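User: Run a structure prediction on this.
Assistant: Running it now.
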Amino acid sequence: MKGLVSCIKHYTDAASSSYFIVAGEEKNAETRCMSSGVLLDVGEVIEFSAKEGAIEKAQAVTGSRGADTFAKSIQKNAKSLVAGRIYHTGTAEIDSVTEKLWGRITDAMLLLARKMVLGAPIVIRFHNDIDGASGALALYKAIAQAEKSGKGLAYKPNILWRMHGGVSYGKEDAGNDMLACNNYECVEKPLLVVLDFGTSEESNPGVEAAKEHFDVIWLDHHPLVEKFEGAKLTHYINPWNFGGDSNYTAGFLACIFAKALGELDTKDMELASFIGDYSVYSMPTPQSRKLAALLDLLTSDTRMVSGLRGALNPEDIERVLKDEKKSEELIAYAENRVSEMLDLGIKSVKVYKAGATQIYVADFEAIRINEQERYPLPGRFASRLLGRIEELNKTPCILLLHFGSFVSLRMSKGLIEKVELLKTLESVKSDYAEYVDSTGGHSNAASIKLKSERMKKEVIKLTVDKLKKELEPG
């Protein structure tokens, strides 16, 4: 049988290397992972015989005809994995954006499918919140389904999942991803997939480093920033470029992306994503509420996952979801803890008048009951606290929640036309450039990252003053 050595996973002992072979003829070629008693070179076309997952004999095939044949096989198998039918939700605004970006989605998925067929390593980074995790879970399910589809994959794809604690992709992150792929040798670059990261300039060094070593697919929904280099990537997809906005969440975008790999039900994950990012398209169901609550807890405190080895990945999340008793216990714990903290938060906020509305400032450290508890994370709690304040006051307002060297801002959507939150924070950064590291986020949910806590009070005061100026009449 003929085969193309498309990728090799090297070990210290060369005899233990894993070979990914695109084997067979054009019509029925499949990718296999095999060991070998002989040393093979990546890109080599071989005539071989195998038994029980191991290559017994192998001999290089001279000439280019074999390589040409396998090039066609690779493309054919990749295309066979990509679904051709566009997904519609029935909501006109969402579906209009999906139709515009569908071609970009299928192009990106064809790239991912090609890497799977080649056996190349694929690093998937997702933001550690409900939105990012829901999209990662959908993609995990789609890849697992493709693996079992019988469409040319006779091995478990080389996927490395990385839950990411921030919304920027730094040079160090790129370095870690390169290091993770160092023991692979492939006919093509490995693939990096980024889900639900921001569009800040802080990612530029990471983007520049990564694109030299990876093909990159970047799915996001944050407002575009002019100097963000990631937007120039071939497979950068953001609804803002297709007539949409941040209500078309990154998690939903990732669900659409997952559906391009095959038919699967992602409805609960879509709705959980909308819930997590307070999208106007949020239409909670009992199941999606449960999923959102669990994703919020698990991505905040991975200690809640018993038997966890290493960082949290979608396989761990699915394991918890399948344990109904454990899931109910975790949801009850999360609801009780948030309820207690909201009660404390309401009692401890400082209030500043700003025209017809009010600005609230809260210290997360003073609200947190137990410093050992990691749930809820400050940014997410800020959204919940704003919601509680809105319920009590019945008027739009702004909340600043500070913790360590961070200030998390949440603003009622009714104020978006009056206050350009991101521009206001950019102005704060400009005035206090020596102390502010970065700002960013959405039109009603953003943050300030300080270089230290040294001038935090002054930065908060300046931010409140600038917001008051925008909100006060005249």
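Residues 230 and 456 are 30 Å apart (CA to CA).
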